[in-house]
Protein: ComF family protein
Amino acid sequence: MKNTVKIWLGPLFHLFFPRCCVVCGAPLAEGEEAICTHCNINMPRTNYHKVKDNLVERMFWGKIPLERATSYFFYRKGSDFRKILHQFKYGGRKELGAIMGRFMAAELATTDFFEGIDVIIPVPLHPRKRRARGYNQSEWIARGVSQVVGLPVDVSSVIREKHTDTQTRKSTYERWENVDGIFRLRHPENFVGKHVLIIDDVLTTGSTTTACADVFHEVEGVRISVLTLAVAEG
Structure:
């Protein structure tokens, strides 16, 4: 009965409250999620998952035991695609994280990017920031990825112990200093010989992601891969 009501009321609801593309604002067609087909086609994808030793991977060379790394699209100044991250992080639209995570995973799954990975670790927020925002945006991306590739998401092993100022408008040095020693790993024995995928929203200098990966530095045989929704260009 409930499903029948939803089927009947759904089109009526969308008539008065149309679903719109988060990028261009155009009404979404049936079957489209969050972004319209036109914007999806024109998304500034990096396609770095197809490129060995790509720019994102080079950001982590010599810092962590890196297997592979990529970002889904470029975060460009003035680009309408920045609206995805703005609505997701600051507009309360946490569902965008899961949707974009599914989009991203579906494309990467056509390659060997997820091969051998044991667990997904979303970069954690400090409890104070999580309460203020209401959710961890990286966790929602991770859960979208998990829905496609079936990998478990671990949100309890890496803890963010220190509350830090926003990284926005900080210099590269200030970003690294701001995140030094802010994470802690619980039960490191659970990760011996494991391949961990760290997921975050936006990659700028790589300081936060590297600080998160650093908690595994004494774990024997651990391997790290990195996946972010976007990477800042320039």
Notes: The radius of gyration is 18 Å. Residues 43-162+179-230 form a domain with the Rossmann fold fold (CATH 3.40.50.2020).
